[in-house]
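Example for tutorial group B:
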């Protein structure tokens, strides 16, 4: 199961780390306790819109940018999750080979046989 709070926390942490800032700096600037911000970043707490706004302000990041990045992460997580639960890929079935006799000038027909998948051979009348 995909948890939105975990994706949101991951994106917030990356934003903070890109800026080279500590949890303490951002928590102080956002007026959020250090422990609570840490729990939000680890996806253990759901952040309210007011809290997200304060954290975004502290990080100088638009909330729309944050949510866009979360949305992209969510799309990738959904794709990965759906790929993991789909039916396993079976070994490819080899198409049956068809024998085709071809007449070549100067060569008896029984000596020339082409074996190929039917859909791979184009027959052109001469």
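The residue assignment follows.
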């Amino acid at each position: 199961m995909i948890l939105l709070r975990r994706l949101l926390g991951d994106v917030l942490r990356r934003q903070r780390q890109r800026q080279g800032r500590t949890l303490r700096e951002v928590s102080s600037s956002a007026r959020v306790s250090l422990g609570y911000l840490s729990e939000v970043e680890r996806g253990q707490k759901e952040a309210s819109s007011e809290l997200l706004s304060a954290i975004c302000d502290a990080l100088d990041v638009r909330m729309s940018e944050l949510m866009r990045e979360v949305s992209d992460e969510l799309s990738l997580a959904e794709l990965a999750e759906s790929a993991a639960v789909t039916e396993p890929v079976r070994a490819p079935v080899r198409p049956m080979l068809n024998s085709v006799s071809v007449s070549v000038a100067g060569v008896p027909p029984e000596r020339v046989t082409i074996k190929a998948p039917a859909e791979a051979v184009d027959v052109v009348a001469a």
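The radius of gyration is 30 Å. Compare this with the pattern of hydrophobic and polar residues in the output above.
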